[in-house]
Amino acid sequence: MHYVCWKDLCLPRDHGRLGFHDQIMWRGALRARLAWATLNDSNSLLHRVMQAKYGLDMWNNSRIPKFSTAWKIIREGAEALSTVIRWRVGNGRGIHILNDCWILDRKLARWPTFVNIEEVENAMVSDLLDGNQNWVAARVERFFGKIMAARILDIDTVSSEGPDLPELSRACFGSSLSSIIYREKFVPSEYQFGWLLKLKLHPREKFHWFRLLQNAIPTNAWLSRRGLMANCDCPWGCNVEETVDHYTTRCSKLLEVFGILGKWGFLVPTFSSLGDVLEMMPVLADTNPLLAIIFCYSVYQVWRARNDLKHTGHHRPASIMAATVLSLLPKLTRKPILLQWGIHQPSRLPTLQSWDPFQAELSAAAAIREVLQGWMLDMEGIIVEGDCANAIKWLQQLNDRNFKGHFNFTGPDLDFFLDFKQVIFQHIPPECNKPADFCANLATFGNFVYSDVNVMGFPLSLLQLLRADNFST
């Protein structure tokens, strides 16, 4: 973090920074709350004392020989408050035409419009009013032109002659007055790495990628350029210079971790440079965010192991890194159950309106029709296993004519089971059927259909579970 300047760290999070509060900038925003309370709470002791001693024109720049610390604090708060207030026109003597906000929510000095600058540069709004506090239409039109003059003439003035009244230019819904004023100090901008915010990484991984995007990762090449290290090669033995491009895309250890994840069924994309990564990450964040998260976590785990190797001489195996990456993925239990069910399943199960294990089991059984092939009907039979005892018992009674439960049920069509020579419905707890549990977890990452264990891309872990399940029986 000490490689990034403090000014950048204090920018808001939607600007791609860490959102630390700059105490110098935050001081005025906090004091603005006190100034606004002093203006509006006429029954407070502070209001009565300040009004009697100094008046309540906090924006008057006339010098006072001696003033209290309280008035100094209020004046500083009033300066910060000026960015979020709009003046309601009274006599117009305290409103500067260019530098105060009195039309809509922006000062004319920051509003690109056609204004006769020579006429209004040092003028006050009172110069546009007559003795009865009505707008002088000819003068307003001469200063601002017809279009802007029409908008100004629609502004109502205070009916009785009196001072100008400040009011907030926006409502404080969901935010405090101090936070609104603090946010006004930053120019709105669109963060070019907004995908990093969408992924919602864990704090350590997110901070690592923040440093990476700020070019604040102390790679060997980075340290060598600053004269802090003589050898700039990759510590993993790649025999090339360790740059940000290298360790995020082409490092041998990173590719080894990707290879292990691929064997486990997680095909992580590879890139040739960091530029390609930054170009594809916005696409992955929208289409397949889980894959983007796996990539970001893998880069961090390899970097962490690289530091262990460099400073201690020991590091974790690549398989442990890959397992750690998967353990950090968002847990399904943190999401609403309906969102879990709405994930695209391999057999395209319909989205249920409510979570009902009985209906879920029947829908899963009906989904077999979509992957049914001719050779399956030539086999001796089919075994359908499920962990809902009521659903399996109901399915077992499909051919029982005395069972009246089928007549009161409206659901999927299960007549295709009659095409099989034999159908066995069996109740098995999830912990006793690890291959099915593995497929259920794999389905959360996308659709898949495996008709043969010899097909390309068949997960090695699933094959091992099938072998273990076969030997156990």
TrEMBL record:
RNase H type-1 domain sequence ranges: 357-443
Pfam families xrefs: RVT_3 (PF13456), zf-RVT (PF13966)
GO molecular function: nucleic acid binding; RNA-DNA hybrid ribonuclease activity
CDD domains per record: RNase_H_like
Residue ranges constituting the Reverse transcriptase zinc-binding domain according to the UniProt record: 192-254
Domain of life the protein comes from: Eukaryota
Name of the protein in question: Ribonuclease H protein
